[in-house]
Write a structure and sequence with these properties.
- Two copies of one chain form a homodimer.
- Chain A is mostly helical.
- Chain A folds into three domains: 7-131, MgtE N-terminal fold, CATH 1.25.60.10; 150-249, CBS-domain (Roll), CATH 3.10.580.10; 279-452, SLC41 divalent cation transporters, integral membrane domain (Tetracycline Repressor, domain 2), CATH 1.10.357.20.
- Chain A is built from 23 helices and five strands.
- In chain A, the strands form two sheets. A three-stranded mixed beta sheet of chain A has the order 3-4-5. Chain A has a two-stranded antiparallel ribbon with strand order 1-2.
- The longest helix of chain A has 34 residues, at 350-383.
- Chains A and B meet through helix 12, helix 13, helix 15, helix 16 and helix 17 of A and helix 12, helix 13, helix 15, helix 16 and helix 17 of B.
Amino acid sequence: MVSYNGTFDSIVLNLSQGNKDELREIFGEIHPYDQAQILMLLSKENRRLLAEILTDEEMAEIIQEIEIEQQKLIIDELGIERYSKIIVEMPSDDAADLLGDLDEERLNQVLNLMDDKEEADLRELMEHPENTAGGLMTTEYIVLPEYFTADESIKKLRKIAPDAETVYYLYVVDEDGRLKGVLSLRDLIIASPETKIYDIMYERVVSVPIDMDQEEVANLIDRYDFLAVPVVDKHQVLVGIITVDDAMDVLAEEASEDMAKLGGIGGGEAGILDINVNAFDAAKKRIPWLALLLCIGIFSGNIIAQFEDTLEAVVVLSFFIPVIAGMAGNTGTQSLAVVIRGLATGQFAGKDTLRLIKREAGVGLIIATTNGILISFIAAVWQKNIVLGFVIGLALWITLFVATLAGTIVPLIIAKLKIDPAVASGPFITTINDILGLTIYFTVATMLMGYLV
Amino acid sequence: MVSYNGTFDSIVLNLSQGNKDELREIFGEIHPYDQAQILMLLSKENRRLLAEILTDEEMAEIIQEIEIEQQKLIIDELGIERYSKIIVEMPSDDAADLLGDLDEERLNQVLNLMDDKEEADLRELMEHPENTAGGLMTTEYIVLPEYFTADESIKKLRKIAPDAETVYYLYVVDEDGRLKGVLSLRDLIIASPETKIYDIMYERVVSVPIDMDQEEVANLIDRYDFLAVPVVDKHQVLVGIITVDDAMDVLAEEASEDMAKLGGIGGGEAGILDINVNAFDAAKKRIPWLALLLCIGIFSGNIIAQFEDTLEAVVVLSFFIPVIAGMAGNTGTQSLAVVIRGLATGQFAGKDTLRLIKREAGVGLIIATTNGILISFIAAVWQKNIVLGFVIGLALWITLFVATLAGTIVPLIIAKLKIDPAVASGPFITTINDILGLTIYFTVATMLMGYLV
């Protein structure tokens, strides 16, 4: 990685001496992500000085790299007019995302300062649900006429490239704006200068509908190794493109959400795993979930209470409560992880669901049998009681088989019903399986009570 | 998405009629990923016919998209000579990955058929550990002399583009091969034709060392929105590049590994969440882990056994075993999810670790207090026993605080010690916290025994 040793100090020095040209030169060599880091490290006064030296375009590149909270600070520092000019220079998808996080009043102030077309474009982009292709796309793509030659196209690119989000994929549309073809800049470069676009473009374009879920879009871009994918409305009209950098962000975001789901933190809300949130806010998001699980846990206790007589007669049964409940939770969480990940990577087609259930049933059977035999043996030796060993082994055998299936089927049903998948989180499955496990355990023990006492 | 309705049938028809030109035209319009799907759906005989019609370059594009098991099938069908020729046409990073999965005998057969330079290149690539920048990089990048003009560069690109993995980033090196600058094809297109490369190239190049962990590389590409990043050896000599599509694959792979970790399946081995593995193999990977947890679970039982007298005197204490153990596991898993995700996204700098521990201590305190009060109340009302409510509440209060910290600190220590992070998996933390919870619970109950009976 690049090292910026000394750069920061030299920027501060040049700021104090007002060497604008030198500053522009030093700063211009730094990647926008790092420029943003440096900008936020500066004092308020120095930040103001630097912002004055930079153009709106340069500031736009930097602002994109800053967290929304810090952006609000920057709005206040720069003033709403400068901010509005900077927003206009940003890729439209990023601009819409940022504006979507502003409060109503600031948003209107910023938009009112733009010309009508820019305002209308951004308002329209902001209307698409955030988690869909529409919410992710940018409208700054390049369309070429199919009758252009490669050489004419490159000349045109030279003019319009600075405004486009990517110049590496170029699109061809018919008179109604419907997507007709795609070619890459690579194809264009390789082609001899007089070749016509319609001779080198691909006509079987892979595109995504505007309402496609963002995770599906990201998986598609990943699968096809695309740098961008075009977005079309229901009439196949090209309305935007989604670039690979945004697809990567989606993959990372969805991975965090899946972890939050499995970990049972607020059900997969983005940012919930953020280590920068303060303790109070972090606790506030976890507590409702824990309180719910506590109540379900009391329900498990109630099951044991139902079998109080059995337990009073054979206190040793209580020794195995943690292992029965725990193992039910463990095997269920394993199956759940497979299902969540499968759903996330779009591995499931219709018939795969049934195949997965059958597979997990098989897994459950093998796991139940091996662990059932193991615990029988341990229990029998530990408590010097072969009958007890048999009871515990049988209970665990049934429990593990049922718990593995529950860990597979419950989240699949929940996903099918399109209920908030948070409900299928790790601790939820664990707690459900606790209850199943204890019920099975005490039922088996009570039925075989005669042999135990 | 593109629909291939009818395409498959028309390919089969044209194969049976031997219409080579038509086949090439239909097939050429299809994306390699889909070509691969179609190829694998064909009968063995039709697959052989189609493979004969396609060039080595075309086959190379297709083969990349096929799973390794099916590739081995293809080697047998095509014969080792054709396969060797195809491998040479593949991007060197993909070729090295594939060859790395072959058995020694097949590998040597394939390599012996190549010329010496190709063989040496691939053997060298295969030597880098799979999970590092070296294992991920391709050696097919484009280097331009800094004294070239934009126009000369584009002309050169036209010639060499077909062999490079990406033409969108171009690199400049000094006489010793050290990385000196980078420019994008976009910069090149925008520049006026007579501009020299050294006037438009960026000299502060972000590069990665050859031994950098692949997850760090992927996070860096994601953070900077790069299409590729150059890889350098310890002398800053350019040795390869890593492209964004490979970075995306890494992110997806690492997300699966993290899920497997949290779910406690074989500790994050890649592919372990694959729904296509058969039941026996899936069970084989989960059983050792479950068996270990079973033994630890018996240890929990042993703790209860230590308190047999307490339990015989107050059987009602057993009703709360599931909720105490369960809640300890739940809060620990929540903290663990935060830590695993934080490690994966590289959020942790040195002092962040301490800050996170403090934050989680705060979270633990809040969670413990609210849930402690809640369960006190429920237990007191349910069992009509205020003292019991107090004992349960106090036990849960201590348990949740300790369990939250354990869920944070244990995986951090394990990561620090560079022990296999599998050990810090969800069920492991859950089980550890079960033991902690039960010990605390029965200790508190035994100490306050006098007030309970």
